[in-house]
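To assess whether the prediction recovers the assembly geometry, we first specified each molecular entity separately, as shown.
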Amino acid sequence: MNHSRVLDTLVKNLEGMAYRCLHDRHWTMIFVSQGCQELCGYAPADMVENNTVSWEEITHPEDRPRIRQQIEAAVRSGQRFAVQYRIVTQTGQVKWVAERGIAIHDEQGEVAIEGFIEDITARRATLEALGEAELRYRHIFEHASEGIFQSTRDGRYLAANPALARLYGYESAAELIADLGDIERRLYVLPNRRRDFLHQIETHGAVLNFESEVYRRDGSRIWISENAHTVHDPKGEFTCYEGTVQDISERKKTEAHLRLLAMVFSNSNEAIIVTDGDNRIVATNPAFSVLTGYQPEDVMGKNPRVLSAGTTPPEVFKEMWTSLQQDGAWQGELWDRRKSGEAYPKWLSISLVRDEAGQVRNHIGSFIDISELKATQERIRHLAHHDTLSDLPNRYSLQKKLEQAVAICKRNHMQMALMLIDLDRFKTINDTLGHQAGDELLIQVAQRLNGAVRESDIVARLGGDEFVVALPGISSPADAAHLADKIGREISLPYQINGQEQRTTPSIGICLYPGDSTEIGDLLKNADVAMYHAKAKGRGNFQFFTEDMNVATTERMSIEADLRLALAHGEFLLHYQPQLDLRSGTIVGVEALIRWQHPTRGLVPPGDFIPIAEESGMIAAIGDWVLEEACRQLSIWQQKGISHLRMSINLSSGQFLDKTLPIRIHELLASNNLSAHLLDLEVTESMSMASPDESISVMKTLRSSGLTLSIDDFGTGYSSLAYLKLLPINTLKIDRSFVKDIESDPNDADICDVTVLLAHKLGLEVVAEGVETEAQLKFLLSIGCEKIQGYLISKPLAAEQAEQFIRNNRPMADLGTIDLWSSAEPSELVPDHAKA
Ligand code: C2E
Ligand code: CA
Ligand code: CA
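The predicted structure of the complete assembly is given in tokenized form:
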């Protein structure tokens, strides 16, 4: 071969060196070192002398153009070059080689390339692998859903991935790194948590699942969990912290939610049982233990059936499972047994929990003990059917009971008596002693009624002071009469109320099934009618219903209706009955007695309408009218010169107890320019004795204005002497019933005698009422009675006639014939207080 000197020298130098070659710019090999054979499998001789294979051919076809270019460029520039390319060995194996070389110009200007070729197949493989790994990690880093970071000790980020940026609310990692110069200063982490973090990582070199609440860029808070460790360089010097951050806000929320549910579960007042798909108990709450007495371990894994009392009807369970199957839920009442053995009713709600596949996973049962509720319901039911005060059946259940009783009587062809019992004077007791005392009385009456009848009889309270007793299966009305009599006696016995003795009597109306009616409504109505008749008969008795009573009742109702209009129509008037003073023989006063000038009935006496007015509440207005009219008349007489005349006015119990009465009387006297001593108020014995304490205080108030008080109808009630002594009264009026038979009945004569004695002993005057005969007058004179009133002197007269009577009266002339003063000296008869 012909080579230049330079090349020869080069070849000489290169010989023996591995992987060296020398080729011209056309890749014709000038020299190939032995080592190259190892590389490509071809012998150097083949490449250089024999030229059987060129280096270009050995070069991988894909790399040839690039290499050619690079070598050309190197030749032109005369610079060193380094190329990497693939060769195909003699055996067809592809290898990577690196060739570094330089173009050498010889003296003829020829260029040769000296190259150093190296097999880099292995290295390339390693590098490639390394690059791939790097790529892979980069990929993970960029796309990880967790935030990944490297930071300095003082909290500056050295590296951060997009996930971390997103987590903290940044667009990109670069933005985060730029903004977050200092974790602490930026207050992304709560300061004390940052301290905990640093402490852990510095002492242990790592933190695991470090949870903290952190702020995002926009100020919102999230929960994160962080894993981090310290990184050191090979020499052991601290490099950075490196770690991952996860947004666990959702998990925290779920946890909080679960905690809440757990709280609900354990704090629920309802007992809760959770069972699995096979209905084995897997959880119970504390309320369950409280309610049942079972601890969780007592029942865990067991079927809830262990709780059952065994008394729930099987149908209930059947229905329960059907509806669970169909609707996934059931509610109902079951009977269970507590650990203590006590059975109780519970209200249970069950729902099913199914998994995605529709398999039943759990049953959730929650229940409450409804024994209280049931007891309350029972109480309410009882209340609905019973009178709260007396605990007797009320009107509602009376109806039901009577229906049953009537049905039984009808079937067995039996009679039934129905009694309506009304307490006399109850309103007075209620008004004077208060409702509590009234209630107490009703309770005691109820007890006595219950005690008086048989178990099979019905006792009920209709309301107010009205009771009903029904006696089904009586054999004759006499049975009813017998019981009515017994009830009458028992109810009339004294009552102890607030430490005081009180009395009442029952007025009883009786009606019979089927004789009087077969309808319950009519039976009650008829008994009511009969009861009113008992009242009219003077109370404290019983009456059987008769058809006539119905007529009377209708009459009464019509009177009541007319009475309502009577005041407005000016149909009332007063008559005045003169009172004679036996000591002076002069008319000293008149008693005002009301009359009703009815448009069709004519003059109605007070006995026919006063009781109706009292019961219907109209008495207050009528009483007021009487007071006004009497005062007006008295004032007229005063002006006409009849100055000594006194006026007696009757009070009804309602008026007497009205707190405004003293004021009204005071006003009336003032407006009529009357002196109070001209007025005398009559209160019946029963009114004043109904509640003596109350009466005493009312009377004292009335007396304080200067008027006088009389006890009317004395002898007809149950006067207590002890109380009579305390009443601030002036006069006793002996009832007409005693005067009437003075001559024939020694008893009545004695009563009159004793009354006068008693009155005088108490410093009271006596007026005898209803004196019709001279004989009566004589007797009354003989026992020292001061005044008389009666037809013997005069009937009640209209105002003008009364005035006439008083003016014309020279009674001594008429009375002279009976020698009024023969039996007693008038002066001796004058009581002490009257003298003063
Ligand atoms: P009272 O207060 O006992 O009145 C006396 C009654 O006996 C009067 O009946 C009178 O006419 C009657 N009378 C008087 N002398 C005789 C007699 O010699 N023989 C007979 N058989 N009767 C005589 P009257 O006017 O029918 O009054 C009945 C009752 O009505 C009164 O009894 C009184 O309790 C009541 N009353 C009358 N006026 C009023 C009134 O303005 N207010 C109130 N609350 N009750 C009144
Ligand atoms: Ca009277
Ligand atoms: Ca009287």
